[in-house]
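hey m, so remember when u said the tokens were messed up on ur end? i reran from scratch. heres the input so u can diff it against urs
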Amino acid sequence: MDWNHYRFRSLWPLPAPPATVYGVLERPEDYPDWWREVHEVTRLDDTTGVIRVRSVLPYDMTFTAREVRRDPEAGVLETALSGDLEGWARWTLTPQGTGTLARYDQAVSVNKTLLRRLAVPGRPVFRANHALMMRSGRRGLLGYLEAV
């Protein structure tokens, strides 16, 4: 087992229609407005940006996200990640009643030296840290969607 490789899946039931949710998620430069753990997004061009995040644990993760798929019809946004994280992340939006089920999948390997050194004993804590970040993101997005 590669202790530095992670697969995550989060499911966010949301009250807004898929097109509305997609419109928010396709603008990562606005994520810091509603997702408190996303501290900074710097656009490099139309499809690439540098993102800095920090959850409960006292370290930042900085990575470049490059868009590899933008498909509003299918409700899919996918990015390739490099930097402290190497891999990919994908949002898939499907109708659920009058709202949306937003599914977030991520498969990454950690490159950050400190986290690699603590891979075995820290793994459960790192997974919990990610779960807390995702829970906070959903809460932030719910509030943001109510305001728009």
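this time it looks ok to me. The beta strands are 5-14, 38-43, 48-53, 61-71, 76-83, 85-96, 99-110. if urs says something different then somethings off w ur setup not the seq
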